[in-house]
Structure formats: structure tokens, C-alpha cells
Design a protein that fits this description.
Distance between the termini: 70 Å
Order of helices and strands: HEEEEEEEEEEEEEEEEEHEHEHE
Largest sheet: 8 strands, mixed
CATH superfamily of the largest domain: Galactose-binding domain-like
CATH class of the largest domain: Mainly Beta
Strand content: 25-35%
CATH topology of the largest domain: Jelly Rolls
Radius of gyration: 24 Å
Number of domains: 2
Number of strands: 20
Helix content: 10-25%
Shape: globular
């Protein structure tokens, strides 16, 4: 109907910007082809998704049907198959989403994930047929172009289950506003060697805005209500502490006189902002980051200290000796510090009070020329970041 009156023109001038604004900014951000539907085939990304693998390697697969993968989809008719390879390559897909993820806003979405028992293909290092069945994980990146890794928004634990489970992600971009989401498979970290593994991906939900106070709720856990063929879900994980390492200035090399072994009880009176306490009795197996059972008494001392001093904010710092490569030392020290932080959070300490950081082999406190010196350099410390009392 033509706008023949001044009233109609004014009304349209008022309503049109509001309509456009509502259209441009909605509560839900949709993926194109969220269930990865397409003709099942080898070596081609599903419609709507862009291959982000290495140019010399084949793209991901539209499953089931290739490489003896027979898993029934969790939704629709097909799903995405991603692998990691023993030549240090891995697969991923990306797409431009319907609305950007805004910096410092908070969002939630989910994926159905599992692992195929059989994923037979040729090894890239030996040329022989092998089963790509070793567990891997998913990493979610935000960027401003296809396959750009501008910011790591989240990563899953290793996907060990062979039954579909729903994993929920709560993300909040901190370095920018992103129009592209990149989903990639990746190796267990830290890992001494690349290996052959797979992850199956299905049923991406829309991304929805959430209140940022929900970010500290348990997240990235498998849904406790299993899917049709899921059986019993695995034990739930502890929530991940928000990574704040970019906000922490690089410390000066700690002097031995400023670092003391953890006493039977951590004494607040002897501490101040910047104080470092070495946790001598926190143990890990060689080149691993799973906390050993005999570490619990030392960790309980830290938990008790934090419980009795609610104004204290601290950093868990991981360190290694000089034996690993720079990259492996950095990864291992970060993973060990993260494990300690997650242990404390699982006991009820809020994530905002426990930061973590890996320092690799940059700050030895003893010589690396002796076995005892290397053992002391491979350590976990706590550093007081704030004491307001």
C-alpha cells in the first residue's frame, strides 16, 4: 500500500530502523547445515562448511560409509568425520556464522561428539593401513576469515567415548569480535608424538547469548542425559578455570631465597603480594599432567589456605627442567598448572581466585646439570596475586 499520508511516512521512519535492528541482532546465531548433511563420501567437507586442513592432505569426510565407519548419526542422515595424523597434520572445518560473536559477550552452543571404533586408512609415515582410533579432542576458534585462528575459544577433553554425547560450550571472546567459527580436531596435549585418531561431529546447536554470570557454571561436560545409543555417560569433568594468562605480566626470575617449600600449613603472616610457595609434594608421572594420589595432602593445604582466606587470589605456576623442547616444556607446564587449578575449583574454590600459567623451562631454581637439580626445577608453585585483608 503506498504511503500517501504524512502519518504513514513518519510511522515507517520510526518502525523501519527498529525492524532492521531486530533483524540484524537476534538471540540465536545459526550455523549453515548444522547437522553436516550431505551425500556420504570420502574427502569432502559437507555443504556449508569450508575445509581447513593442510593443502597437501585430503579434506574431512562425510560419514558414515568411508574407511569402515558405520556409526549411526545422532541427528539426520550424516555427520562429520575428522582425523589427526601421525605426520603432525589434522583436519578442521569453518564457516561464516549468521551474526558475529561480539567481544566480551557470552554465548553457549553444543555439539554431539564421539569416536569411531574403526577408521581405517593409510599411515602417512609408513604407508601401511592403520586404525585411526586413538582419542583426540575438538578445539573451537574464532576468527575474521575462514580457518583463521584469532582466538582459541574452547577445547574439549579427549573424546574417548564411542557413544554420542552432547558437549555444551560456554564461550566469551576477549580479543575481538568474530564472524567465523573454526572447528578442528587436535592431538592430546602434551604429547611426545603425533598419532592417528578420529572424532565424529554432529548436530551443532544454534549459538545463543547467555548472561555472563553463567560462565562459571559447570560447562563442556557431556550431557548427563545420554543420546539414544549412548548408554551411561562418563564421569563428569570439573569446570575449566578461565584463562587469564594474557593479563599477567612476566615475572622476574624467582630467587631461591624468595621461594620456600610448602610448610605443613601455609602461613598467611609470612606472605604478601608476590610471595611464591613451592609445592614440593605435588607429583605427576613423567611427561604427564594427571595429578597422582599422593599429591592430595599438599593440595589440601592450598585448599584450606584459600578457604580460610577468601580475599586471596593466587596463580598456579608450572615449571619444567631443561630436558624437553621449548614447545613441549611450555605445554606440559601449563597442563600441570591447569590440573592443579581445576582440582582446587572442583573442591569449591571459585575460578576467579585461581589463575594458572605455564613457564616452561625459563626459570630454573637449581642447576640442570644434576638429577636432583632437574627434579627440583620440575615443580609447581603458588604465587600470591592479591591479598586485600
Amino acid at each position: 500500500m503506498p504511503f500517501t499520508s504524512k502519518y504513514h511516512r513518519v510511522l515507517w521512519a520510526v518502525l523501519l530502523p527498529a525492524m532492521l535492528s531486530a533483524q540484524q541482532k537476534t538471540d540465536l546465531i545459526h550455523f549453515a547445515n548444522p547437522s553436516f548433511e550431505d551425500l556420504p563420501k570420502c574427502c569432502e567437507a559437507p555443504s556449508g562448511w569450508y575445509n581447513c586442513g593442510k593443502s597437501e592432505e585430503s579434506p574431512p569426510d562425510i560419514q558414515p560409509g568411508s574407511f569402515q565407519v558405520t556409526k549411526t548419526p545422532s541427528n539426520g542422515e550424516t555427520y562429520l568425520g575428522l582425523v589427526v595424523r601421525d605426520n603432525e597434520t589434522w583436519e578442521g572445518v569453518a564457516q561464516r556464522i549468521s551474526q558475529p560473536l561480539e567481544m566480551n559477550e557470552c554465548y553457549e552452543f553444543s555439539l554431539d561428539l564421539c569416536r569411531a571404533e574403526l577408521y581405517l586408512s593409510l599411515s602417512r609415515t609408513t604407508g601401511e593401513e592403520v586404525n585411526y582410533a586413538t582419542p583426540a579432542k575438538i578445539r573451537i576458534w574464532g576468527g575474521m576469515g575462514y580457518c583463521e585462528k584469532r582466538e582459541l575459544l574452547w577445547e574439549t577433553p579427549l573424546i574417548t567415548t564411542t557413544r554420542w554425547l552432547t558437549y555444551t560450550f560456554r564461550i566469551s571472546p576477549k580479543k575481538g569480535t568474530y564472524s567465523f567459527i573454526f572447528i578442528e580436531s587436535y592431538f592430546k596435549t602434551p604429547s611426545l608424538f603425533a598419532y592417528n585418531g578420529n572424532i565424529l561431529v554432529d548436530n551443532a546447536s544454534p549459538i545463543k547469548r547467555i548472561e555472563c554470570n553463567m560462565m562459571n557454571m559447570p560447562e563442556n561436560e557431556p550431557n548427563t542425559q545420554p543420546l539414544a545409543d549412548a548408554g551411561k555417560p562418563p564421569m563428569t569433568r570439573t569446570p575449566k578455570a578461565p584463562t587469564k594468562t594474557n593479563e599477567i605480566k612476566r615475572p622476574e626470575t624467582p630467587k631461591p631465597s624468595a621461594t620456600a617449600s610448602a610448610p605443613a600449613k601455609i602461613n598467611r603472616a609470612s606472605l604478601k603480594k608476590g610471595s611464591i610457595v613451592r609445592l614440593d609434594k605435588v607429583y605427576f608421572d613423567a611427561d604427564k599432567y594427571i595429578i597422582r594420589e599422593e599429591s592430595v595432602p599438599a593440595l589440601m593445604e592450598v585448599y584450606t589456605f584459600l578457604s580460610e582466606n577468601p580475599d586471596v587470589i593466587l596463580e598456579i605456576g608450572g615449571h619444567t627442567n631443561n630436558r624437553p623442547t621449548e614447545e613441549f616444556a611450555q605445554t606440559l607446564s601449563t597442563s600441570r598448572a591447569k590440573s592443579v587449578a581445576e582440582w582446587l575449583i572442583s573442591k569449591g574454590i571459585t575460578a576467579e581466585r585461581v589463575q594458572y600459567r605455564g613457564y616452561g623451562k625459563k626459570f630454573p631454581i637449581e642447576t640442570n646439570a644434576t638429577v636432583d637439580g632437574r627434579k627440583r626445577n620440575q615443580r609447581v608453585e603458588i604465587k600470591i596475586l592479591s591479598m586485600n585483608g
